[in-house]
Amino acid sequence: MRIKNPINPAAALKASITAARAAGALIRRNFHTVKRTKQVTRHDIKLELDVRSQKLIEKALYSAFPSISFLGEESATGDLGAPYRWVVDPIDGTVNYTYGIPHACVSIALQGRAPTPKAADYEDGYQTLVGVIYDPFCDELWTALRGQPARLNGRITRVSSRRQLNDCIISIGFAKTPEHLAQTLPYFNQMVRRVRKIRMMGAAALGLTYVASGRFDAYIERGIRLWDIAAGGLILESAGGEFWHKAIAGEYTYRMIATNGRLRRQLAVPD
Ligand code: LIP
Asked: 235 and 125 in one domain?
């Protein structure tokens, strides 16, 4: 499928960086303020600030690209089957942020309908063209344009070259539902004996960028959502890594094995 009036990826990257930095500043400014919750469940918290951050990002992106639809963690606008869509997590790591743990970020991806089914990254026919992840606490900005090397604060960044699990630090995420927790615990139990260390950081987008920059050698999570992984997946692949993911039950829900490109067989998760 050929898209009429293709979007200029470099211009989309510029607009995404501006929006990510603005949302990052909002998140940073409110770090020590009382957090107003919008929704609290057994394993998750949603803040009013999640909505404010998303509104700020949506406004900034809309002013630059009024025709592109918007799929955010908090809400969606426009035709989500359109040739292009933004996929945004306004605060990834909200529970960390709520508890005053400075490990959270903004994640912005631009996706387009793939020209052929083979070129699609996701089962619904989309591919990620631009990825931006900004950590306002470490002032770290990861960026990627499809087909170009990934960058951290402007410098090319690469995955690690470790091949043996017992040399590796892997990250495992525990999603929000009792089912995903129950499915992940036996895997955690198995892996903790086979790797150097396991880290559970609570922000999927940073989990992917940490693999992209060789800090982790792999990151695994079941029950993760598209807005948590869209930008990070492109950044990881553009840094030489492997971003294996598969749609599972639930809207925009996936299971994922993200690695430095040398470990998936050793990490394989039974169905
Ligand atoms: C979080 C993810 C994390 C996962 C949490 C939650 P949020 O995203 O980054 O990996 O384990 O359950 O989904 O809700 O902070 O944007």
From this structure: no
For residue 44, the domain's CATH number is 3.30.540.10
Ligand 1 pocket residue status of 74, Cβ below 6 Å: no
What's 219's domain CATH number?
3.40.190.80
Q: How many domains does the chain have?
A: 2
* CA 114-120-125 angle, 5° bins: 70
95 CA closest ligand 1 atom index = 15
Residue 270's pLDDT is: 52
Q: 202 CA distance to ligand 1 centroid (A)?
A: 6
DSSP alpha helix (H) spans, the chain: 9-29, 48-64, 94-98, 178-191, 204-212, 226-237, 264-267
pLDDT at 1 > cutoff 90 = no
- Which is the closest atom of ligand 1 to the Cα of 173? 11
Q: What is the pLDDT at residue 163?
A: 96
> By CB neighbour count within 10 A (0-12 exposed, 13-18 middle, 19+ buried), where does 63 fall?
exposed
Cα–Cα distance measured from residue 4 to residue 132, given in angstroms and rounded to the nearest whole number:
25
Question: pLDDT value at position 2?
Answer: 65
Amino acid at the residue 89:
D
Q: Please state the pTM of the whole predicted model.
A: 0.97
In a domain, 4, yes or no: no
Determine the distance separating the centroid of ligand 1 and the alpha carbon of 228, expressed in angstroms: 7
Rounded CA separation 30/11 (Å): 29
Q: Where does the pLDDT of residue 6 fall: very low under 50, low under 70, confident under 90, or very high at 90 and above?
A: confident
